[in-house]
Design goal:
Layout: H1 2-6, E1 14-15, H2 20-29, E2 35-36, H3 43-48, H4 50-59, H5 65-82, H6 91-109
Parallel strand pairs: 1-2
Length: 110
């Protein structure tokens, strides 16, 4: 907790769940009065980590950082062409964009 707060301005409030270790850490740091603990107070904080945790879990499959970096660079190029946000557009627009993406990918692959 001390390391996380070290390089930042002192926050007005720190939201955490009700673990006693958090309370003890806040007391040691002198931030006991800034800690907010409530039944649903931590929901927004925990849910904001979900996309990060999903990426982090996927990264654990790689044994070497070099192979992760290689995959991530290739994945970014592929994802850009094929992530067409299907749920936001009608079928005809989706098919046109998909065809364009496939055509661009074939040009890049050859």
């Amino acid at each position: 907790m001390e390391k996380a707060l070290k390089g930042h301005v002192s926050p007005d409030a720190i939201t955490s769940d009700g673990l006693r270790s958090y309370k003890a850490a806040m007391k040691d740091l002198g931030n006991a009065d800034k800690q907010e603990v409530g039944r649903w107070a931590n929901n927004l904080v925990e849910n904001s980590h979900l996309p990060f945790r999903r990426r982090e879990r996927a990264m654990l499959r790689f044994r070497r950082m070099k192979s992760l970096q290689k995959f991530a660079s290739v994945h970014a190029n592929v994802h850009k062409h094929f992530n067409l946000e299907r749920h936001l557009v009608d079928r005809q627009t989706f098919k046109e964009r998909r065809s364009t993406g496939i055509a661009e990918w074939q040009i890049l692959a050859s």
